[in-house]
Amino acid sequence: MRMVDLIAAKRNGKAHTKEEINFIIDGVMAPAVNSPVKDYQLSAWLMAVCWQGMNLDETAWLTDAMARSGQVLDLSSIGPMIGDKHSTGGVGDKTTLVFVPLLAAAGLPMAKLSGRGLGHTGGTIDKLEAIPGFNSNLPVGKFIQQVKDIGAAIAGQTTELAPADGKIYAMRDVTSTVQSIPLIAASVMSKKIAAGANLIILDVKCGRGAFMETQEAALNLAEVMAEVGKRLNKPVSACVTDMEQPLGRAVGHTLEVIEALETLKGNGPPGFKDLTFSLGALALARAGKCQGVFEGMKILDDLISSGKALDKMRELIIAQGGDARVIDDYSLMPTAKMQFDVVVPGSGQKWVEHLDGRLIAEACKVMGAGRSKKDDAINLAVGVVLKGKIGTMIEGGQSIATVHADDEISGKKAVDIVAKAFKYSDMQVAVPAVIKARVGS
Ligand code: URA
Question: 47 CA to middle of ligand 1, Å?
């Protein structure tokens, strides 16, 4: 078998066999010098997949091969139900940072394998690096032991868990090959299979800030992941959720950690809190810990108001080597040198009608918050705090957002981009629903 022939076959719209998919993933995992799949060939193949797609058989084989590129954990010794959740990527999506300690505090052990930033979207592992000392590079033994000890762990990809996804993910990020339903499905599901949890909630984002811009495409992705899960014995529940505008108010690594900590302290912004609680209540209902979503929400609310969810976050940070003093002193995290206001044009009362999540991500990238090359360092301090979201009433001349920058040139560029992200109406605008559809068990 030759990789060049497989690239040509996919370019011409042919379906791969299981053996061909295994050949590609074995090649990705082989040492570079004698691998039959060179980096440049992998990127050409990824682009061919973006254009031609894959059928469900190919997607399930790819997922299985990627999951088996490392260890597939058996967590049954921890308990009958182990939770995990995964988002397909968005702007300002810090859900994991609240969901994991919250659900762990509710008695559902959480074994979470997360990723770094991808395309225009941020990654949980990068965000956690804003906490000094936080180590998400957990060897498998420590990952399992930590879930046993404190009921929660958040790890990034190592060479032990779905390492093929780690390599392909980094390559997709810098070759513009992220936006593909089979590649996203295989990436997400391979990690979920490898990490061993059996109660999996998928948050499939849709809108301008997501990889799937339409609800139809997001639903399709959710259905593909549910079907792949079924075929590989890993049933999932998936929700299609709004990512037209950023989630919550903060976008940028440190700023998002602060918003997550504020949410655990009971001060979460409505859209973000609604989403996290809805997904959390769904997980509790599936785990048999409540009769329905309403009771689940009440349990989660109590865990926030009693401080138990925040205590669990403290335990998690300490267990992973982080400086838990950040919970009470945000200045211990990287902080931007300057702030600029983005001002609403004109005068008089108006409502935010549109807020383009993709442009907010672009503004952050201009200030150094994203990668252009695989090994680029990112600026954890910069970002944008949105004072208004779709449906907010505001006066012309008021500040609608604050840009946190490390230098004046990039800060001012970001202000221009953020200003373009907002559109206003003279008529009242409704706040959009966060959850749009549900798929799977
Ligand atoms: N999240 C992942 O883990 N993989 C993708 O491809 C997209 C989002």
Answer: 16
